[in-house]
Design goal:
CATH architecture of one domain: Sandwich
Low-confidence stretches: 1-32
Shape: globular
Mean pLDDT: 78
Distance between the termini: 87 Å
Helix content: 10-25%
Largest sheet: 6 strands, mixed
CATH topology of one domain: Immunoglobulin-like
CATH class of one domain: Mainly Beta
């Protein structure tokens, strides 16, 4: 009788252990085939959560409140981070996302691939926008190599007026 109880409890203990046969990254939940170095990814993920004081994204151009004849030339900058292409999973790196007439994205949320949001996954820092004449808001959002937003601290919004 005691042998059955021990066997039953042993079986329950095994069921409660994580599935060690399929290694998944604790940070991203992906399997071994998703990225080779789970330990490096976990370290980068931990470092990403702490955004240094003074880190920010900015519009180098245009200036907030500017009136511009289209097309709109946009230059993007960042301090406290390094611009790297999407897919680069390294601490303190990421790439820009630009939304027209939309809002910023909450921290650790994947920036959506929608018509109003441009992903600069190759690490670009300049672009040209064709916007209809009128008043527009431009929101710059910095995100990590997996397109996860760094949140409001690495986001900024300006308002411009486009003529013609």
């Amino acid at each position: 009788m005691n042998t059955r109880i021990v066997a039953l409890l042993g079986g329950l203990a095994l069921c409660m252990l994580p599935n060690l046969a399929s290694a998944h990254c604790g940070s991203c939940g992906e399997g071994d085939d998703a990225h080779a170095d789970h330990e490096a990814h976990a370290k980068a993920e931990k470092a990403e959560k702490a955004i240094p004081e003074g880190a920010k994204v900015m519009f180098v151009a245009p200036a907030d409140g500017a009136t511009i004849k289209g097309p709109v030339k946009v230059q993007m900058g960042v301090e406290g981070r390094t611009v790297k292409p999407a897919g680069t999973i390294e601490a303190m790196t990421g790439h820009h996302h630009l939304s027209a007439d939309d809002k910023g994205i909450a921290q650790r949320t994947v920036v959506p691939a929608v018509e109003t949001c441009i992903h600069f996954g190759k690490g670009q820092t300049e672009t040209e926008l064709k916007l209809a004449p009128g008043k527009h808001t431009l929101t710059l959002q910095f995100a990590d190599g997996a397109h996860q937003s760094y949140g409001p601290q690495l986001s900024t919004t300006i308002t411009i007026t486009v003529t013609e």
